[in-house]
Amino acid sequence: MGNDIIYVKDLEKSYGEKKVLHGISFNIHKGQIVGLLGENGAGKTTILKCIAGLQSFDAGNIYYRNRSLKDDMSIPRNFGILIESAFLDYLTANDNLKLLLWADGEVDSRIIWDKIKESLDLVKLLDVKNKKVKHFSYGMRQRLGLAQALMTAKTFLMLDEPFLGLDPIGKDIVKNAIVSKAKEHNMAVLFSSHDLEDVADICDTVVMIKQGRCTFNGPMQRSRLYTVQIDNIPDGFIGEASKMGVEFLSDNILKFQPSKADKYSIDDLLKLIYTCNMHVVDIWVEELSLKNLFMERDV
């Protein structure tokens, strides 16, 4: 687990006889933004609720800084969580956030205002801090929910569909706030989305979920397709290369996609080529879109 802030290990969950999570595993480091990508009903929100301690799970475990949630259910108090926003509509945005900090045990008025001001400023709602929430638009409520999560997050921020229902300006505001918290405050961030473009815009790592199974878990830069021309193919090479997921297009043309190879990289393939006394004649690199990657990772 090492430097992981969050480590989800072999997570399984069923509702009655319907199994919705099948051995999900991934980790998140400090300053890392991880996008949990999947269609509606794939299991994303169930994963988030398990991490938040809002949902039990049947098998596997979840660790926060090497501590098991099973052993200490108070751990999620360290998290900033946006799953289902809840406000008192008859109060202002400022008063809603103040109540949240009071409930969290904060009583110093100066600290309370500093936290509220920083969070509302990040989501561009500071100028309407004294406006009652009942007069907020849907997008403003979404951003206020993010402000709640930002304000209470200590080392980990977790957001369920944070861009849902936002206009382009609202999306940019939320994306900038997430990136700021991760990169300037070294916070681990996990957010779910079914929108490929939103995930591609800001995440460092993608975890793809289809029908409750993890079909891809890796950095964005693994979404590349390499076509390699070599001078010859000696005995034994085809078997070893095939284990790495290499496809042979012709006698001397290979295709390799790290996103399909899981534990192997292009460096591993090149090392094998040179170990077998072969030479690379040419190599072409094609950047695959996240859409290509998502569509091909069928269960």
From TrEMBL:
Single GO MF descriptor: ATP binding
Top-level taxon of origin: Bacteria
Family statement drawn from the similarity comment of this UniProt entry: Belongs to the ABC transporter superfamily.
Keyword Ribonucleoprotein: no
Positions of the ABC transporter domain: 6-236
One Pfam assignment: ABC_tran
SMART domains (alphabetical): AAA
Name listed for the protein in its UniProt record: ABC transporter related protein
Keywords: ATP-binding, Nucleotide-binding, Transport
UniProt-listed InterPro entries: AAA+_ATPase, ABC_transporter-like_ATP-bd, ABC_transporter-like_CS, P-loop_NTPase
